[in-house]
Amino acid sequence: MNTWKDAVTLGRVRFVVQILMFIFLVYGGTVIGHYAADKISGELPALSCAYDKQNASYCVLIPTQHQLHHRVGEALVQMQQFSFKVLLPLFFTFLSFYLFFVFLNKMFCGWICPLGTFQEMLYKLGRGIRLENRYAITPAQTYFVRPVKWLILVFLVFLLPLLAGLGVTAPATGDAFCQVCPSRMLTTLATGDFEQFTINQATLGDWIFSAIRAALFGIIVVTALTLRQPFCRICPLLAFNALFQRLSPMRLVKHPHEKCEKCGICHKACPMDIHEIWHESGSKAFHDDCTLCGRCAEFCPDDKVIQIKFGPLALFSSAREYYKRRIKGEKPEGYPVAKKLKAIPIKVEKS
C-alpha cells in the first residue's frame, strides 16, 4: 500500500515549484503590478524575460547589458560622472542579484527558470511518445559544449553591449543576448503575444538577430524532445551564476564512498550529463554546469553519500530506502537500476 512518503519525492516537489514559479514569473506581473516587476525584482538569476509584458520579474542579464550599453560605454566616451552613472547602478544590480542568489545558488536554474521548466516538460513529452535519446552523451561531447556558455556570456552579454555604448557596433547589439534569447519567445508566447515571432526588418542587425532567435527557439523545441536541457548547456546565465556559486551556502556535497564508481546512477540521473559526479568527490564532483536539481541525490542508492546542504544543515540526503521507493515510480531516465547497471568506461586523467 502506497504511503505519503511514496508520493512525496524531491522530484515531485521540484516539479510543483517549477510550475508555480513558471506561472508567477510569466503572468505574476498582473498581480504585483508593472512597477514592482520593473523596478524591484529586475535582477532575478533566472531567464524570466523583460519582453514579457505580464511578467513578475526578469533576469539579471538584461539590466547588465543595458548598463554596459547606456552607462558604461557612454560614460567611457564622456568620462564624466563615472562613479554615479556607472559604478553605483552596476553595484546595486549585482547586490540585488546576489541577495536573491545567496539563498538558492543555482537552484534558480534547476527549480525556477521558466525556460528550464519548459525544456523538462518537452523532454517528458518526448519520453511519453518514445522519442527519448537512447544514446548517452559522451564526456568528449560534454567537454566540447561546456565552453560555449562562457563565450556567449563574454561576447553577447558583456562585450557587444559595451561596444554599442562606445558607438563601435550597431544599437541593436546593446542587448545582444536578449535579441537571441529563446526565453524571450517562450514567455511572450505563453501570454499570447506573437510579436517576438515576427522578423524585424527595421535594420539589417535587427533582421539577423530576429532570424537567429526564431531558428534557435525552433532548434531547442525539437532537440528538447530527445535531449535533456539542451539550451541550459550553453546558457550564459548558468555561466553567470557559476561566477558566484562558491559564495553561496546552498550547495551539493558528495562524500567519498567505497561503492562509488561502480553503479554510475548519479551520472545517468543528471540532466546535464555531469560525469565528474560519478568519479569525483567533494567540490570536484559538481561542475559549473550543475543546476542543483538534486536528481543525483535522489537516485544515489547509498545513505548520505550525496547531500543538498545549506551551510552545515543537510536539507536532503541520499538514502537506500528513499532510492527503493523512488525507482518504483521512475527509473533515472529509463536506465537500469543499480544492481543491473553496467559501468560506462570514462577516461579519467589522474593529476
Pick out its properties.
351 residues; 2 domains; 17 helices; 3-stranded antiparallel β-sheet; 4% strand; mainly alpha
Describe this structure in words.
The chain has 351 residues and is mainly alpha-helical. It has two domains: 4-239, no CATH class; 249-340, no CATH class. It has helices at 4-7, 10-27, 29-32, 34-40, 61-78, 82-104, 107-112, 114-128, 139-165, 176-180, 182-190, 204-224, 236-242, 265-269, 276-279, 295-299, 320-329, and strands at 250-254, 306-310, 313-317. It has a three-stranded antiparallel β-sheet with strand order 1-2-3. A hairpin with a 2-residue loop joins strand 2 (306-310) and strand 3. Helix 11 (182-190) packs across helix 12. The radius of gyration is 21 Å and the shape is globular. The termini are far apart. Residues 334-351 have low confidence and may be disordered.
Q: What is the secondary structure topology, with strand pairs?
A:
Blueprint: H1 4-7, H2 10-27, H3 29-32, H4 34-40, H5 61-78, H6 82-104, H7 107-112, H8 114-128, H9 139-165, H10 176-180, H11 182-190, H12 204-224, H13 236-242, E1 250-254, H14 265-269, H15 276-279, H16 295-299, E2 306-310, E3 313-317, H17 320-329
Antiparallel strand pairs: 1-2, 2-3
Helix pairs in contact: 5-6, 5-9, 9-13, 11-12
